[in-house]
Amino acid sequence: MHVDMDAFYASCEIRENPALKGKPVIIGGDPEKKRGVATTCSYEAREYGIHSAMPISQAHTLCPHGVYVRPNFSLYKEISDNIMDILKEFCDVFQRASIDEAYLDATQRVLEYENPLCFGKAIKNAVVTQEGISCSVGIAPTKSVAKIASDYRKPGGITVVSPEELLPFLRPLPVEKISGVGKKTKEILNNYGITKIEHLEKADPEELIDILGKTGEWLWLIAHGKDERPVGYSGSLKSMGKEHTFLKDTKNVQDIHKSIEWIAERLTQKLDRRAMEFKTVSIKVRLKGFETYTRSKTVPYYTRSKSTIMSVAKQLFEEFRGRYVRLIGVRLSNLRKGRSQQVDLQQWL
User: Fold this and answer.
1) What is the reported pTM?
2) What structural domains and CATH numbers belong to the chain?
3) Which residues are catalytically annotated?
């Protein structure tokens, strides 16, 4: 099963302030200062064409009468934790996928109900009754199809895909319904005439591998309803990063360096929690006018050193010194599980 909250951040704000119900609610930046992006929005706001990651100024142009709310992440986390505790009661194995979604292996628990649909309704009703948040539920033989199913009847829908219905359910859907098929992969597939999951199913797997590498093979398997990943397995972490958007475009190097240091501190904490090390540091710089650049450097050793993150990121930023910066981001990649605490020369000295 895949359980996905409906417009989660907006739903949390509406729960706290019922007067917002039925209104276009946009969570994100400040439209008056024209800073930031729309993090998410209610379904009423989506009718105006607003979507996540849209510049808040553009959202305000599309929906000037909308209710614009700055995000309250501590509230969202508290509600999310409560919901996850509810979901754990309905499954044999639990996997939290993000702040607003989770996978459940309910192979045994579902037997306590008349049928899977009744089980899905019980989950949805429990979340709504106890936390006042709507969710959509997808029930299927595999994780990938369950996730597609949870999105099928949003908001508040329950979709059950039996083993017999699995391929007929998948075939007419566009390829981008598969989690992991983003804009670039969709464009590549569409250029080869592959627009539906049925086309992936009928494609030559070797040709898909030639086009997309290992991703091509994975998509071919998903299109055939094959996904052996058990609940609880989320794959290996490829990278981790964090960004900071300045309230006002700045070319003050001290402010930019402080932001890099703040990001490095957060990333180091994440590395420590996951016992991971990195070799590659990348920066993302968005300038005034939304010009965006990325730069990377790989160090000769694995480490989780905060000072290495800061020094490499600052070195990479030098190219942009003197220009007005809107956003600075740092990303770590080339990750592995830590074998030992690597001490770099800078720390040793």
Assistant:
1) 0.68
2) 9-71 (3.40.1170.60), 74-164 (3.30.70.270), 171-223 (1.10.150.20), 239-340 (3.30.1490.100)
3) 101
